[in-house]
From TrEMBL:
Domain Nitrogenase/oxidoreductase component stretches: 19-428
Gene designation: nifN
Protein name: Nitrogenase iron-molybdenum cofactor biosynthesis protein NifN
Listed PANTHER family: LIGHT-INDEPENDENT PROTOCHLOROPHYLLIDE REDUCTASE SUBUNIT B (PTHR33712:SF7)
Chain segments carrying region Disordered: 433-460
Function according to Swiss-Prot or TrEMBL: This protein may play a role in the biosynthesis of the prosthetic group of nitrogenase (FeMo cofactor).
SUPFAM superfamilies for the chain: Helical backbone' metal receptor (SSF53807)
Length: 460
């Protein structure tokens, strides 16, 4: 069990984490026809918007209640009402996902009460639009907590409660925020290959996959539909990926009695086997030949890759569930976790990270702990530490703004694990130093106290 070392600095040095509101907004962006709304100042929204645009390289629908000095003192209920009405009139969203920021949370505003009053007062004007609130103060938690709170809020606010007639072939999937667009798309295709019907909440693979619509759309286009969220209770089984999604799964089970199975990781042969076996059991179908072939390819990749990864020291900084996913992958390949840094101590998964300790901190902590490591693994803000330490950087997580296609990188199940093995092995090969004669034979130039050591080929 890893020891969790608390943050011990008064200021972040090269911050690692992003805020809860950003995580909640990302979850709302996975809903069709949605408009995330930050309840706070314009600066909070602008910062998140810049990160989203740089990471996804897409136009991101994100709005703000634009609280100023006066509304900060007198209260922001009027700004919230005006923002909701303006969005309804101008963009006709199917969902307005409200994410509170530190400004209103510190002030202690009753956002839930304000929204209830707005719904009652403006029922006719906002009819046809779901309004969901996620309380996400910046000063607590990180992206994982914000994502989970938004999913929980959508289930509580939209899903029909009570036990319903189940559809045995329908599978509800609650993915963690650490899964990429490619991961979620691959997950859906894998479930469908067993003759099952996946309903993914939220589904960023439908809205942030880099397609170009044939017309200008002011909200998200693609993703989970409101009707799918409403009918989650008819699923025969719920699959949960990531420890931070346990809370939303429990809420869904409490409201609808839909059973759930939690996968803390889908990367690696063992975890992928468990997932595929479960799909086979749910569907009653045998594993398709194509899936078996992908498994065989992974087995071969594991044999090829362990020569390059075995014995390597890895330094990782990531959100808790992604840290666990990557650490278990590297340890499974024979590597050693030399440093593990995460954003928050609110996740129980940190105790299972295969490392001596997990430091709650920033990229400054990663740089201090990574001396002697062979590889840095974190997002794009780790590039300065990589340069200073002279270590290669494997970019993962959010944000990745200095590379294209990060959202289309596959990291789960047989194919994703195979691709990870190849990526890491290629990084090590590209950064391998050519051996020098001195390294090959350390005795070559050694001198004795009486002078140079004679060559073993010298005749006497």
């Amino acid at each position: 069990m890893a020891r969790i070392l608390p943050q011990n600095k008064a200021a972040a040095v090269n911050p690692l984490k992003s805020s809860q509101p950003l995580g909640a907004a990302l979850a709302f962006l996975g809903i069709d026809g949605a408009m995330p709304l930050f309840h706070g100042s314009q600066g909070c929204t602008s910062f998140a918007l810049v990160l989203f645009v740089r990471h996804f390289k897409e136009t991101i629908p994100l709005q703000t209640t634009a609280m100023d000095e006066v509304t900060t003192i007198l209260g922001g209920a009027d700004n919230l009402e005006e923002a909701i009405l303006n969005l309804k009139t101008r963009t006709q969203p199917k969902l307005i996902g409200i994410c509170t920021t530190a400004l209103v949370e510190t002030r202690g505003e009753d956002s839930a009460g304000d929204i209830a009053a707005i719904k009652l007062k403006r029922a006719e004007e906002i009819a046809g639009t779901e309004i969901v609130l996620a309380n996400t103060p910046d000063f607590s938690g990180a992206v994982e907590e914000g994502w989970a709170k938004a999913v929980t809020a959508m289930i509580e606010g939209i899903t029909r409660p009570g036990e319903r007639a189940r559809q045995p072939k329908k599978v509800a999937i609650l993915p963690g925020c650490h899964l990429t667009v490619a991961d979620i798309e691959h997950l859906s295709e894998m479930v469908e290959s067993f003759g099952l019907e996946p309903v993914i909440l939220p589904d960023i693979s439908g809205s942030l996959d880099g397609t170009v619509p044939d017309r200008w759309v002011t909200t998200t286009y693609g993703g989970t539909s409101i009707e799918d969220i409403r009918e989650l209770g008819t699923a025969g089984q719920c699959i949960v990926i990531g420890e931070h999604m346990r809370g939303p799964a429990k809420v869904l089970h409490r409201l609808t009695r839909v059973p759930y199975v939690l996968f803390q990781s889908l990367t690696g042969l063992k975890d992928a086997d468990r997932f595929i076996s479960m799909l086979s059991a749910i569907s009653g179908e045998s594993v398709p030949a194509g899936v078996r072939r992908r498994r065989a390819q992974l087995q071969d990749a594991l044999l090829d890759g362990h020569f390059h990864l075995g014995g390597k020291k890895i330094a990782i900084a990531a959100e808790p569930d992604q840290l666990y996913q990557l650490a278990t992958f590297f340890v499974g390949m024979g590597s050693e976790i030399a440093a593990a840094v995460s954003t928050t101590d609110m996740s129980k998964i940190l105790e299972k990270v295969p490392a001596e300790s997990v430091q709650i901190g920033d990229l400054g902590d990663l740089e201090a702990l990574a001396a002697g490591a062979d590889l840095l693994v974190t997002h794009s803000h780790g590039r300065q530490a990589s340069e200073r330490l002279g270590l290669p950087l494997m970019r993962v997580g959010f944000p990745i703004f200095d590379r294209l296609g990060s959202q289309h990188k596959l990291t789960i199940l047989y194919q994703g694990t195979r691709d990870l093995v190849f990526e890491v092995a290629n990084i090590f090969q590209a950064n391998r130093q050519a051996p020098t004669p001195e390294k090959l034979n350390p005795l070559r130039k050694r001198e004795t106290s009486d002078g140079p050591r004679p060559s073993p080929l010298t005749r006497h």
